[in-house]
Structures are given as structure tokens and as C-alpha cells.
Amino acid sequence: MASTTEFSNPLRKYKLVFLGEQSVGKTSLITRFMYDTFDNTYQATIGIDFLSKTMYLSERTVRLQLWDTAGQERFRSLIPSYIRDSSVAVVVYDTTNHASFINTTKWIQDVRAERGNDVIIVLVGNKTDLSEKREVTVDQGEAKAKENNVMFIETSAKAGHNVKTLFRRIAQALPGANSNQVDGTSKEQMEKVDLHNSESTEATGCAC
């Protein structure tokens, strides 16, 4: 007879916390994933927003709880409590803002301080549709991800590029959250996701 755990695993809930400086596109990534829309009008997130979505994969179904955190300094004291029980931390920077990229180091350190290695961390370079304003190269993003032993991918919430791929890869990596071996494999797969083609495919929209 199958155990209760075996029945509950396919619908297990996983908490994803989105971190990063103000206006890097955290809310836009979530909105694109949830509703496949993009709002050109910027509105800063106040405190913490929460959304939930079920993902149906070929081998399992998972429930993702998406926690959108504010990037402003005055809300920083709230964030550690949300990181504490997370399965995934998505650290976002703006590829047209080098300072936001530099500051991802602190966000990653904050996650490690709260969760150690019991968490999947994804470094996301957003706004690749603004290629003419790019200040952070793909190579720089890859290098920082390898240095910190985290996943890496570039996206455009506006164009829809790689957003579905980002969440699909996260969902596929979830069983490895407590296994270094499986998690390591997932990281290798993530680093190979359509990175070098991001600029050339951007004009066509979603490359997922």
C-alpha cells in the first residue's frame, strides 16, 4: 500500500521568493508567467505580494507559491523571514543596470545565510530586449553564477523570452532541493538554456 507521502508529493507546494533591486523586473517576470501579459507602467511593489500557480509537467504536478518582494531599502528588514522557509530564491538583476548586477552578490549571501545549501538559487538577468542599453554581458552573468554555484538564465519579461523556460527549469529542479547531486545536475542544465542565442531570438518574442 502506498504511503500518504507518496500521494502528497505530486501536489507538494514550493515557495519561490523573488529578490533583487528595485525596478529590475521581478513583478514583471511573475506577471508574464502567471498571465502572459506585460504592463509598461511601472509600479513599485509595496512590502510583499503573493501569487500561486500549479504547473503540470509530464512527470509530476507542482504548486508554486510566488512571493514578490519589494526592492526598496525600507522593506529589507521583512525579507529574511520570507527567505527562511523558501525552496527557491530567484535573484533578479537588470542587464542594463550594472549596479543591480553587482548587488546580486549580497542577495545571494542573504539567502545562504538563511537557508545554507537547502535552497535552489537562480540568478536571472532580465530586460534582454533592451540590447542596445546592455551593461552586463552573458559571460559576466555566467561567471557570477559559477562563482556562487547557482543556476543562471537571461530573460525578457517584456518580450516573454525564456520566462516559461525559467519556471519550467525551476520546477524540474525542485526534487533536488535537498540533494546536492541532483541539484548540481540541474544547475548544469540551467546554464545551457538558450543563453548565447538570447539577443538573436529576442525580436521573435518567446523562445520557450
UniProtKB/TrEMBL annotation:
<dbReference type="GO" id="GO:0005525">
    <property type="term" value="F:GTP binding"/>
</dbReference>
<dbReference type="Pfam" id="PF00071">
    <property type="entry name" value="Ras"/>
</dbReference>
<dbReference type="InterPro" id="IPR005225">
    <property type="entry name" value="Small_GTP-bd"/>
</dbReference>
<dbReference type="InterPro" id="IPR001806">
    <property type="entry name" value="Small_GTPase"/>
</dbReference>
<keyword id="KW-0547">Nucleotide-binding</keyword>
<dbReference type="GO" id="GO:0003924">
    <property type="term" value="F:GTPase activity"/>
</dbReference>
<protein>
    <recommendedName>
        <fullName>GTP-binding protein ryh1</fullName>
    </recommendedName>
</protein>
<keyword id="KW-0813">Transport</keyword>
<dbReference type="InterPro" id="IPR050227">
    <property type="entry name" value="Rab"/>
</dbReference>
<keyword id="KW-0636">Prenylation</keyword>
<keyword id="KW-0449">Lipoprotein</keyword>
<keyword id="KW-0653">Protein transport</keyword>
<keyword id="KW-0342">GTP-binding</keyword>
<dbReference type="GO" id="GO:0015031">
    <property type="term" value="P:protein transport"/>
</dbReference>
<comment type="similarity">
    <text>Belongs to the small GTPase superfamily. Rab family.</text>
</comment>
<dbReference type="InterPro" id="IPR027417">
    <property type="entry name" value="P-loop_NTPase"/>
</dbReference>
